[in-house]
Design brief:
Number of helices of chain A: 0
Shape of chain B: globular
Strand content of chain B: over 45%
Oligomer: heterodimer
Largest interface: A-B, 27 and 20 residues
Order of helices and strands of chain B: EEEEEEEEE
Largest sheet of chain B: 5 strands, mixed
Number of strands of chain A: 11
């Protein structure tokens, strides 16, 4: 069964550094999403992406965040200058239409 | 999107049916009911969705009341691997960007 792949599974970075989280969505999907989950809290929507542009974003997704689909297969989330509070599990998801399929996540730890 | 109310936790004996309720009394006519689950800290996993009629797939059954104000997810023969957080989500299916808004969900513990 096709799946969403995320790399790396764990990322440790120093505060103020830039990080790029990578995702390979399911190949025929057109809609892409990033979510995050701080330890012990809800899964939170960050951004959705369709037709090479952001279709919706949450208040969390400020100027420090950006998304890109640099080629036909990858979907990336960049955090420009990481803060301690960015430590969380980040999930990528993709959908053909109404059903979202999630990757297994990248655990980001900001020290 | 309409809000949902779920019990914070439930227990179920292994091999028994797990019935997870969800209240969505403010649901509107074009909103679907979706169920996802999250096992430990893995990514959420789609289970089932429906609009008006009851639905069944290889994982579960979804029973929606006639007035659509509540629904029940049924796992017919729960196993230890079904221990997870179950999310009931109600939303309109849009042309672009069908995001999901997750609540706290129900922690289902399946016990042997």
């Amino acid at each position: 069964e096709p799946e969403v792949t995320q790399t790396p599974s764990h990322q440790v970075t120093q505060m103020g550094q830039e990080v790029i989280l990578r995702c390979v969505p399911i190949s025929n999907h057109l809609y892409f999403y990033w979510y995050r989950q701080i330890l012990g809290q809800k899964v939170e929507f960050l951004v959705s992406f369709y037709n090479n542009e952001i279709s919706e974003k949450s208040e969390i997704f400020d100027d420090q965040f950006s998304v890109e689909r640099p080629d036909g297969s990858n979907f990336t989330l960049k955090i420009r200058s990481t803060k301690l509070e960015d430590s969380a599990m980040y999930f990528c998801a993709s959908s053909a239409y109404e059903k979202l399929f999630f990757g297994s996540g990248t655990q980001l730890s900001v020290l | 999107d309409a809000k949902t109310t779920q019990p914070p936790s439930m227990d179920c004996a292994e091999g028994r049916a797990a019935n997870l309720p969800c209240n969505h009394s403010t649901i509107s006519g074009n909103e679907y009911v979706y169920w996802y689950r999250q096992i430990h800290s893995q990514g959420p996993q789609y289970i089932i969705h429906g609009l008006k009629n009851n639905e069944t797939n290889e994982m579960a059954s979804l029973i929606i009341t006639e007035d659509r104000k509540s629904s029940t997810l049924i796992l017919p023969h729960a196993t230890l691997r079904d221990t997870a957080v179950y999310y009931c989500i109600v939303r309109v299916v849009q042309e672009y960007g069908n995001k999901l808004v997750f609540g706290a969900g129900t922690i289902l513990r399946v016990k042997s």
